[in-house]
Automatic annotation (TrEMBL):
<keyword id="KW-0648">Protein biosynthesis</keyword>
<dbReference type="InterPro" id="IPR006195">
    <property type="entry name" value="aa-tRNA-synth_II"/>
</dbReference>
<feature type="binding site">
    <location>
        <begin position="84"/>
        <end position="86"/>
    </location>
    <ligand>
        <name>L-histidine</name>
    </ligand>
</feature>
<comment type="similarity">
    <text>Belongs to the class-II aminoacyl-tRNA synthetase family.</text>
</comment>
<feature type="binding site">
    <location>
        <position position="128"/>
    </location>
    <ligand>
        <name>L-histidine</name>
    </ligand>
</feature>
<keyword id="KW-0547">Nucleotide-binding</keyword>
<dbReference type="Pfam" id="PF13393">
    <property type="entry name" value="tRNA-synt_His"/>
</dbReference>
<dbReference type="GO" id="GO:0005737">
    <property type="term" value="C:cytoplasm"/>
</dbReference>
<feature type="region of interest" description="Disordered">
    <location>
        <begin position="417"/>
        <end position="440"/>
    </location>
</feature>
<dbReference type="InterPro" id="IPR045864">
    <property type="entry name" value="aa-tRNA-synth_II/BPL/LPL"/>
</dbReference>
<dbReference type="InterPro" id="IPR015807">
    <property type="entry name" value="His-tRNA-ligase"/>
</dbReference>
<dbReference type="InterPro" id="IPR041715">
    <property type="entry name" value="HisRS-like_core"/>
</dbReference>
<protein>
    <recommendedName>
        <fullName>Histidine--tRNA ligase</fullName>
        <ecNumber>6.1.1.21</ecNumber>
    </recommendedName>
</protein>
<dbReference type="Pfam" id="PF03129">
    <property type="entry name" value="HGTP_anticodon"/>
</dbReference>
<keyword id="KW-0030">Aminoacyl-tRNA synthetase</keyword>
<feature type="binding site">
    <location>
        <position position="114"/>
    </location>
    <ligand>
        <name>L-histidine</name>
    </ligand>
</feature>
<keyword id="KW-0963">Cytoplasm</keyword>
Length: 440
RNA sequence: GUGGCUGUAGCUCAGUUGGCAGAGCACCGGGUUGUGGUCCCGGGUGUCGAGGGUUCAAAUCCCUUCAGUCACCCCA
């Protein structure tokens, strides 16, 4: 029998890491609900044509197929695992528009799948935590300013490095490109997005080669991309470039509002960064990317944007804005750098020692009494010597060992302090009740 | 999907021109007939990632494959 091996890109964390993940997800979920987002879970699969509706990245979609699929099965009816939570949500809104009240605020925390080549913080199966707001026909702009605040609140209470959310607005780029006469705005966006990686010279070359820009146009696009600021001053820098376009003006006004809204609540959280592009299609307004301070080189852990055409039937339109926290990605990076620790590897707060097997029923009663008051408790596996029972607790980080006797005593094995205790009333200090997650 | 690097004990790693698989820490047992950590004694716990090839002989050389990681691609 060969020992089973891991599958590339499908990480399985150990209980301490999973405990941390649950803690993080709880924090995120509670925050989302604090802002009034309603819970939603969509099925894992979507019709393949739905998934591929936008973009030609079909390579990365996992397709679902029965082992005994019929020979003549057509591709039309095949199913794919969802690769994000926005596309399934858009489908859900269209499907259930009649039952929903708009604007509709929902959160979704689910696994998604992408057939990418894995590396640290980048997996084929991973967890995302997503919020979106959609409305019918038109979506008020102010929701675009709200997204970063929710994310900052959710992540701000966690023992992780501070985040910085980079924002841009598609209208700024597209208006600007139109203003200077660049023919292929999408190609231009794609080129400009690489600025940090390949530098201004290569971006200028790309702009000429792929976006059909002249040298002067490339220079202008590059000048725009190099602008960034944590306050509204970026708008002056853009206007100083002397490009005139109504869409540009609209985008600038929106981006200023996003930045100023954030600065009022959380100064330094948001930075306007005009090279941020995100995916090629479907974003139409504000776009977000998020860096963990100190982990900038690992890319964005949270991203999203405004979309106007994702959910539409032709007659009805449901514009939306959303942002998604890459939970697995963020935790994978932090775990990889030993930047998160937990005080114990199991939930157990108290181990009830067992003097002899004849005493086990009494020990079980003690455990039940503690559990009934919310103290996570387990009973020692065997009536081994007390030294071994204490070691059992120590190896797992369990802080307390309960010794049956006349009277019962409980020992804090970290300090060695042992006191008389009654299982009907004893309570550990609040900080010992659950494992504590902390930064390294 | 393309290319590079890495893979030896639970962890960190050593292993010479191919010649009996090692160290530290961790862990297990005992000293300790019942309260751990210090100390002493004892124990190597391994499919050298896997499969195949070359060879008298492979952790070592060759091929394939799996996994991790890095750079691309992509990031909906």
């Amino acid at each position: 029998m060969t020992r089973p091996k891991p599958i590339s890109g499908f990480p399985e964390w150990m209980p301490p890491q999973r405990t941390i993940e649950q803690y993080v997800v709880d924090r995120i979920r509670n925050t989302f609900e604090l802002y009034g987002f309603a819970p939603l879970e969509t099925r894992a699969v979507e019709p393949l044509d739905q998934l591929l509706r936008k973009g030609e990245t079909s390579k990365e979609v996992y397709v679902l197929r029965r082992l005994q699929a019929e020979e003549g099965a057509t591709d039309d009816d095949s199913l794919g695992l969802h690769f994000d939570l926005t596309v399934p949500f858009a489908r859900f809104v269209l499907e259930n528009a009649g039952k929903l009240q708009f604007p509709f605020r929902r959160y979704q925390i689910q696994k998604v799948w992408r057939g990418e080549r894995p590396q640290e913080g980048r997996y084929r199966e991973f967890l995302q935590a997503d919020i979106d707001v959609v409305d019918r026909d038109t979506l008020p702009f102010h929701y675009e300013a709200e997204m970063p605040l929710v994310v900052a609140d959710a992540l701000g209470g966690l023992p992780i490095p501070p985040i910085r959310i980079q924002v841009n607005n598609r209208k700024v780029c597209e208006g600007f490109y139109r203003g200077v006469g660049i023919g292929d705005p999408e190609a231009a966006l794609r080129a400009v997005d690489k600025l940090d990686k390949i530098g201004p010279d290569r971006v200028a070359e790309l702009l000429v080669e792929t976006a059909g820009a002249t040298q002067a146009q490339a220079k202008a696009a590059l000048a725009l991309a190099e602008i960034s600021a944590t306050d509204a001053s970026f708008a002056d820098a853009v206007r100083a470039l002397g490009v005139e376009d109504p869409l540009l003006d609209e985008g600038l006004a929106e981006l200023v509002r996003v930045v100023e809204t954030a600065n009022e609540v959380a100064p330094g959280l948001v930075i306007a960064d005009l090279k941020i592009a995100r995916g090629l299609d479907y974003y139409t307004g504000t776009v977000y990317e998020t860096q963990l301070r100190g982990y900038e080189r690992f890319g964005s852990i949270c991203s999203g944007g405004r979309y106007d055409n994702l959910a539409s039937t032709g007659t009805e339109r449901f514009p939306g804005v959303g942002i998604s926290i890459g939970v697995s990605r963020m935790l994978g990076l932090l775990f990889g750098h030993d930047a998160l620790t937990i005080s114990r590897s199991v939930p157990t707060c108290v181990l009830v020692a067992v003097p002899t097997e004849d005493d086990r029923p009494a020990c079980d009663r003690t455990a039940r009494a503690l559990r009934s008051r919310g103290v996570p408790t387990e009973v020692a596996p065997t009536a081994a010597k007390y030294g071994k029972q204490i070691k059992y607790a120590e190896r797992r980080g369990i802080p307390y060992v309960w010794f049956p006797g006349e009277p019962d005593t409980v020992k804090d094995i970290r300090s060695g302090e042992q006191v008389e205790a009654d299982a009907a009333t004893w309570q550990p200090p609040a900080e010992d009740l659950r494992p504590v997650v902390s930064g390294a």
